[in-house]
């Protein structure tokens, strides 16, 4: 605590909480853009928060990405986490297997001793395939479960980085540029005012569904992510932000 005071982390948290109208902000020391270990600290802070908010047998809906992977990596067996059911927030978004929400759910369950369910949805869906999947009984059952999540935990990405990482088509990249997309979360892309400008066709949570959850934990750090975090929060789906000093200080320059 003395160290947190010394680095001014408590003050940063307070400022961000007030300025962004969040219920809870946690700022960990460092900048994950340049210091790779900081992502693990973000992960540890997220697990701590999850332990605080989880009730026995809660459904937790989880997004993909390297930050969520870091969250999964630092989970350990725990009396409450062991009773949780982890489900992916949305189906395939074009990520590498290790960063897919499905993989991360199974990792979280394996490390904490909990249960998981998977959403078997291929990455590139045609309109017809999408329609027929929506009518599939098993998929419907999982989607119902995903929508019932008490806690949602997710990362926030920079739009262009995410589109490139997912090998988006030149048309999609042009569209994102044209619409000035700056942020991405759950496969939705946002402009700086928080408007959705593009979404990846898949099944799972809609952004309105996320608002139904009792707790929404966004975990995103790194100085370069500041505009993306601010843009996503403008969309209005927020509750708790877990970030690092690099992103926190940069965000305060913009607001
Ligand atoms: C994606 C999630 O997989 O990862 C997004 O669906 C998130 O919600 C993104 O924005 C962030 O990735 P990273 O690697 O920066 O944590």
How would you describe this structure to a colleague?
With 255 residues, the protein is of the alpha/beta class. It has twelve helices and eleven strands. The strands form two sheets. A seven-stranded parallel beta sheet has the order 1-11-10-5-2-3-4, with helices on both faces. A four-stranded antiparallel beta sheet has the order 6-7-8-9, with helices on both faces. Helix 2 crosses helix 12, helix 4 runs parallel beside helix 5 and helix 8 packs antiparallel against helix 9. The longest helix has 16 residues. The protein is globular. The two termini are 27 Å apart. The model has no long low-confidence stretch (mean pLDDT 95). The site of 6-O-phosphono-beta-D-glucopyranose (BG6) has 17 residues, from helix 4, strand 5 and strand 7.
State the end-to-end CA separation: 27 Å
Low-confidence spans: pLDDT under 50, at least 5 residues? none
Question: Beta-strand percentage?
Answer: 15-25%
Helix content range of the residues, please?
40-55%
Mean pLDDT: 95
* Alpha-beta content class: alpha/beta
What ligand species are in this complex?
6-O-phosphono-beta-D-glucopyranose
- What is the count of DSSP helices, taking H or I runs of 4+ residues? 12
> What is the string of helix and strand elements?
HHEHEHEHEHHEEHHEEEHEHEH
Q: Give a quick account of the main beta sheet: strands, pairing sense, barrel closure.
A: 7 strands, parallel
**Measured on Cα atoms, how large is the radius of gyration?**
17 Å
Main sheet: which strands, in order across? Answer: 1-11-10-5-2-3-4
DSSP strand tally = 11
Overall shape: globular
């Amino acid at each position: 605590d003395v160290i947190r005071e010394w680095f001014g982390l408590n003050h940063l948290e307070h400022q961000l909480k007030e300025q962004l109208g969040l219920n809870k902000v946690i700022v960990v020391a460092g900048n994950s853009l340049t210091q790779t270990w900081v992502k693990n600290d973000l992960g540890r802070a997220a697990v701590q928060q999850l332990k605080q908010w989880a009730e026995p047998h809660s459904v937790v809906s989880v997004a993909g990405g390297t930050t969520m992977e870091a969250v999964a990596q630092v989970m350990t067996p725990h009396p409450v986490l062991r009773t949780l059911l982890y489900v992916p927030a949305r189906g395939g978004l074009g990520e590498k297997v290790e960063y897919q929400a499905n993989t991360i759910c199974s990792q979280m369950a394996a490390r904490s001793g909990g249960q998981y369910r998977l959403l078997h949805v291929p990455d590139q869906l045609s309109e017809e395939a999408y329609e027929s999947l929506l009518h599939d009984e098993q998929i419907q059952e999982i989607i119902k479960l995903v929508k019932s999540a008490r806690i949602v935990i997710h990362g926030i990405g920079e739009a262009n980085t995410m589109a490139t990482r997912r090998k988006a088509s030149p048309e999609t990249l042009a569209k994102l540029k044209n619409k000035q997309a700056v942020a991405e979360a759950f496969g939705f892309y946002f402009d700086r005012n928080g408007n959705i400008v593009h979404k990846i066709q898949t099944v799972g949570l809609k952004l309105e569904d996320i608002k139904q959850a009792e707790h929404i934990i966004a975990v995103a750090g790194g100085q370069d992510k500041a505009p993306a975090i601010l843009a996503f929060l403008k969309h209005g789906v927020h509750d708790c932000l877990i970030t690092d000093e690099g992103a926190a200080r940069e965000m305060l320059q913009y607001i």
